[in-house]
Every structure is written in structure tokens, then in C-alpha cells.
Amino acid sequence: MRLLLSIFALSALPGSALLAQDITGTWQGTLKVNGPNGSADLRTVMKISRADKDGLKAVFYSIDQDATPFSASNITLKGSALKVSITALNSVFEGTLGGDGNTISGKWTQGANALPLNLVRATDQTAWTIPEPPPGPVMMPGTAKPEFTVATIKPSRPDAPRGGYGFRGQDVTTTNVTVNWLIKLAYNMHAHQISGGAGMA
After folding, report:
1. Looking at CB atoms within 10 Å, which of 17, 105, 108, 192 has the fewest?
2. 150: alpha, beta or left? (left if phi > 0; alpha if psi -120 to 50)
């Protein structure tokens, strides 16, 4: 008898309340943004997973802008109402889980701007490909032995012609040129990109 009562009580719950507990997965939708060059459709992906027994965590991607993932700073689910805060983007997503558990109707707020954003649950067949994030900086191995490059600068005669430059292995040799000229050569820069350096011209 108790088992029958338990089944009846469970079936009496609203469908959205049951499905709200199964919000984990990949959700995706298109954010329409208006800019100076017209409107743009930005595909957004949000991956929601369990953080612990009762908590949730989420990672957000804007795959048409950048492959960098942004972790949610806070995510709450109360009944069918979902709220995801992303401090790094100064953004909040608020939505309502649909009765079938496969849609979330909501809005994306970033700063003072609020835009509609409706998400659908993705499957293996419908999920958008998320680009690989950009590689991080290359760290010098701990076993590396840095070496110094030696530059020898000697005064030249005022009447000496300004020479070009020549390579001898890894060495570069030039005559009667300015420090600014050397910087432009070394870094492939234009003169207007170099500031300061009084007395180098």
C-alpha cells in the first residue's frame, strides 16, 4: 500500500518538476546580436554537469567568436527556473525549462543589454563542434640552459658610407647605421612604430 501511495505521489508532481532534475547535458542556441555592421548570429553552447550530489556546474562557449570556455560562477535551478551567472563576462542567463525537458526559453543579459536566447538539448548527432581553445604560452623547459647573445658596437667614421647588412651564420654585420635602424631590422617594424630613444636616430 505504501508503494502505491509513493507512486501516486510521484505521478502527481508536475512534469517540469520531474524533468528539471535532468538538466545536465549540452544545450545550444543562437544569440542574435546587433552591431555597427549589422546583425550577427552567434552560436552559443552551454554544458551543464553535476558538481556534487546536489550542485551543478556549467561551462559556456561562444563558438563563433572564441573557443575559450568560460565557467559559470554560480548556477541555480529552482523547479524549472534556471539562472546561470558568468562573472568573467559580466553576464547572466535566465531561462525556464520546457515541459519536455529538452528546451530552455530564456534571455541573455550582458551588462545593460538583454537579448532573447532559447536553448535546445543537443544530441551526439546535433551537437555543434566546439573549436579547440588557443594554445597557451610555451614554457621554457626546466632543463634549458639560456644563453646570451653578444652585440659588439663600434664607432664608425662620420664619412663612412651607410652599408647594408650581411649574415654570417647567426651573426649580422652592418656599418654606420642607427639604433632605430637596428630595431626596425630586428623586429620588422616601421619607423613610426618606435617611440622614444633620444639620440638613437
Report:
1. 192
2. beta
